[in-house]
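Researcher: Structure for this, please.
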Amino acid sequence: MPSPFPGMNPFLEQPYDWEDFHSEFFSKVREALSDEVGPNYFVKLEVRLLLHERSAAERRFLGKADVGITVSRDLDRSTRGAVASAAPMQLQLPAVEIIKQTYAEIRDSRNRRLVTVIELLSPSNKVTGDDRNTYLGKRDEILARQTHLVEIDLRRGGKRPTTPKAIPPCDYYALVSRYEDRPNVDFWPIGLRDPLPSIPVPLSEPDAPVQLDLKKMLDRAYDAAHFGKHIYSEQPDPPLSPDDDAWARGLAGLLV
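Model: Predicted structure, token format:
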């Protein structure tokens, strides 16, 4: 069943679940838009990899290796020595955390020209540091080209991009920047209790934009990954106000 919230589900903002939701959301975006853009365009998912070296105190299990080797428990010590001789010394690799940021591109199928980029802001995009600088640099490249930008922010808190400067107070937002209209952009401020809108995704003129229903994308991602099984055991991050927390817990069925 779909998410019980009319708009963004704040329980999806937990760090543990966000990356999974981010990827699943874009999977549904590609499915939906591929059916709408017609034969002259195709939708492609790209992944931006961010590597973070962690200190010894922060080291933890970060994921599975691309290739793994397992030693059988049936091999005794002498057999293992025959299989692989001991190295003369051991060194330690730095612990690296890999953050994957998925985004979508719409390209012209006739010449593969980049037409539109669709971004969903991640936590690291909204915290001062290298990740934010990398994202803002890519954003500036898009805005300097004849490429449309669709930027969606479904996370409360953090430091938003500095342009446009007149962003009104809101929990979430959607922004559509058509290159023909710059520096003007279309902007949808969204509150916690507001429905998520359907927004136009621009294509090349004279083709009309296609609609992207953000609530429908959220619900499809929510159902596909079965988020309802586990996200309500944790708290939204950042925390909600007491009134909003009571409202959210009521919708999630956590109040008795």
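Researcher: Any notable elements?
Model: The domain at 10-53+95-251 is CATH 3.90.1570 (tt1808, chain A). Confidence is low (pLDDT under 50) at residues 55-68.
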